[in-house]
UniProtKB/TrEMBL annotation:
Signal peptide: none annotated. It comes from Candidatus Abyssobacteria bacterium SURF_17. Its EC number is 1.2.7.4. Its cofactor is [4Fe-4S] cluster. It catalyses: CO + 2 oxidized [2Fe-2S]-[ferredoxin] + H2O = 2 reduced [2Fe-2S]-[ferredoxin] + CO2 + 2 H(+). This is Carbon monoxide dehydrogenase. One of its GO terms (molecular function) is anaerobic carbon-monoxide dehydrogenase activity.
């Protein structure tokens, strides 16, 4: 078997799947080889029925599509269409959360409440809503309604974009990429890529950025804020990650997807005395609810529920033979689950009208009956436990300790202490040369890369160069599984300056800040760094960067565009399918910096990518005239050797 993953649990389950004659995404991906070279370069156009058309990027064949579109126009339109789809996914997530909060405020939901009243009042005041009445439900209804208005707004500026630093907003207005309404920009983008529409590659890309900003600073930010209000703002919590969290003698329920509305209720119901008693009646010791993908991150941060794995492990969780039910909601759900589940006793249950899978059981989620639906699902899983074939069960031993649940707000208290919450220690650490900078490592898994390798290799390389990491999504899942979110064990990978700060503050060197919509927390943390001062007056001046080392979905396209448009240079791999157009590639890799203060780095080798990001951070530090780094990087030495080097450096200072 060719190298598939750096995760031992994944490799074990792939071997078991082979023995059980079960086909997974890894094998299905192999069957696609050789892939279309035109598609990989982004020069294939399927925008109308005169196509598909393909343009020869080497100048020997056709140079235009049937309608006359150039290679630059084709490549730009393909990116824009992908961005519109990705932006719609995360923004629709935000709309659903806003709807749930609105229904809860009106008393029309079952089992939900408003948990974080403090954040509700903060957001209400930011939105200009009168809070003097102190009526929580009234305020929640007004906040939710105001957020819902942002989707259909036709003129003006999306309300939450006003959080951005003034210089960034000035750029957006000058370039006409400040979003008027979340849905409006997505719809207009889709109109522009229709056949016979926009053919100017830069104009197309700028509108894609406009839709993306509406996602990152609109739909995703709304999703994060309202999820905190509805279910509670996370606080640091200990848990475990990897397939080893599944119980040998417990009913195992795996929730998978992205929206926390039903999964939060499933965790609550599964932990009830009623369900625990039913599980014992069926011969199980307890009920374990574990997560896959971003649903995992949501229930991990708020409920401490264990994380079973990331995107490419969804089928492998079932392959353990120990999962009674997998409950899915939206996004990143493999249709192939319906091919794997019947090979075992696992029940595959869909819950969203937007995601139906042939052969799966469907329980339509409705806020008005949330508790009843959760009880039916958990009961069905428990009653399936006696059907487990013990001879076919193989649960990997691998699981790692972790600390998750960091947010823009609670990091204040960890950095500055309860009575002087502040981002000053972070900024000071950067100014003094203890920290090189901060990098957000986010995104998916992709079968085109060795599972988890890029996330892990890239992150470790940065840690030894004193870079603090924040992480979300399936990248967070990877780093959780490999021990980098353990506040003690992870320190062995850190340069001395980073280690010094983590030990003093009591945080791991990799901070888990949530699901993929919670990339908005990275943006708001950057805002706080700018507000604190000393390292620039705009996000684009900060020694920060982003990376999606194993990008997979159209959501990643939107995320990448809005992060770079926010002034954060971002490594992205596999790259957008843009290499068929020199002009589009040059704009994204170089020219975009002139417009937005940041650009993309397309690099497949994670070590080389890390070095490019380190060079970028150093360039930002030099521009700010910050002190040189206090300590040399680890460069692979033993901890003892690193300590000696550190002592010499201190003596030299």
């Amino acid at each position: 078997m060719k190298e598939r993953s750096v995760d031992k649990a994944t490799l074990q389950m792939l071997e078991k799947a082979k023995c059980d004659n079960v086909c997974t995404a890894f094998e299905r991906s192999d069957m696609q080889d050789p892939r279309c070279g035109f598609g990989e370069l982004g020069v294939c156009c399927q925008q109308c029925y005169m196509g598909p058309c393909r343009v020869d990027p080497f100048g020997k064949g056709a140079q235009y599509g049937a309608c006359g579109i150039s290679v630059d126009g084709i490549v730009a339109r393909n990116i824009a269409r992908a961005c519109a789809v990705g932006a719609s996914a995360h923004s629709d997530h935000g709309r659903d959360i806003a709807h749930n909060l609105y229904m809860t405020a009106l008393g029309k939901t079952q089992g939900y409440s408003i948990v974080d009243e403090r954040k509700l009042f903060v957001i209400a005041e930011e939105f200009g809503i009168d809070t003097s009445s102190g009526d929580t439900k009234k305020l929640a209804a007004e906040v939710a309604h105001k957020c819902l208005e942002q989707f259909g707004q036709q003129e003006g500026e999306v309300l939450t974009t006003q959080r951005a630093p003034e210089k960034q907003k000035e750029r957006w207005r000058k370039l006409k990429v400040m979003p008027r309404g979340i849905d409006r920009e997505i719809v207009e983008m889709l109109h522009m890529v229709h056949v016979g529409m926009d053919a100017d590659y830069k104009n197309t890309l700028l509108h894609a950025i406009k839709a993306a900003v509406g996602d990152g600073w609109g739909g995703s930010m709304i999703a994060t804020d309202l999820t905190d209000i509805q279910f509670g703002s996370p606080n640091p919590v200990r848990s475990k990650a990897n397939l080893g969290v599944l119980g040998e003698n417990t009913v195992n329920i795996v929730v998978h997807g992205h929206e926390p509305t039903l999964s939060e209720m499933i965790v609550k119901v599964a932990r009830s005395p009623e369900m625990k008693a039913l599980a014992k009646q069926k011969g199980a010791e307890d009920v374990t609810v574990a997560g896959i993908c971003c649903t995992a991150n949501e229930i991990l941060m708020r409920q401490g529920a264990p994380l079973a794995g990331n995107y490419l492990q969804q089928e492998l969780a079932i392959v353990t033979g120990a999962v009674e039910a997998m409950i899915v909601d939206v996004q990143c759900i493999m249709p192939g689950l319906n091919q794997v589940a019947p090979c075992y006793h696992t029940k595959l249950i869909t819950t969203s009208k937007k995601v139906r899978i042939p052969g799966a059981i469907h329980y339509q989620f409705e806020e008005e009956r949330a508790v009843d639906i959760a009880k039916k699902i958990v009961t069905e899983a428990i009653e399936n436990y006696p059907k487990r074939d013990r001879k076919r069960v193989q649960i990997p031993a691998e699981s790692s300790e972790l600390v998750a649940g960091f947010t823009t707000e609670n990091v204040f208290y960890h950095l500055g202490g309860k009575f002087r919450p502040s981002y000053k220690p972070l900024n000071e650490g950067i100014i003094q040369g203890r920290l090189r900078g901060v990098v957000g490592v986010v995104g998916c898994n992709n079968t085109k890369t060795v599972h988890d390798y890029n996330h892990l290799t890239f992150t470790k390389e940065l840690l030894k160069h004193d870079v603090l990491i924040v992480t979300t999504g399936c990248s967070a899942g990877c780093l959780c599984k490999h021990g980098l979110l353990d506040s003690e064990d992870a320190l062995q990978y850190c340069g001395y300056g980073l280690r010094e700060i983590c030990e003093a503050v009591g945080i791991p060197p990799v901070l888990h800040v949530g699901s993929c919509v919670d990339n908005s927390r990275i943006l708001t943390a950057c805002i706080e760094m700018v507000k604190e001062g000393g390292i620039g007056t705009d996000i684009s001046q900060l020694p920060v960067a982003g990376s999606a080392p194993e990008a997979m979905s159209h959501k990643a396209t939107s995320i990448g565009l809005y992060v770079v448009a926010s002034g954060i240079t971002t490594h992205f791999n596999p790259p957008f399918q843009v290499h068929g157009s020199k002009k589009v590639l040059d704009y994204l890799s170089n020219e975009m910096e002139k417009d937005f203060g940041a650009n993309f780095i397309f690099e497949g080798d994670p070590k080389k990518a890390a070095q490019k990001i380190i060079a970028h951070l150093d360039k930002k530090r030099e521009a700010l005239k910050l002190k040189p780094m206090m300590y040399p990087p680890l460069n692979g030495e033993t901890e003892k050797a690193a300590a000696k080097k550190q002592a010499a450096a201190v003596a030299g200072n």
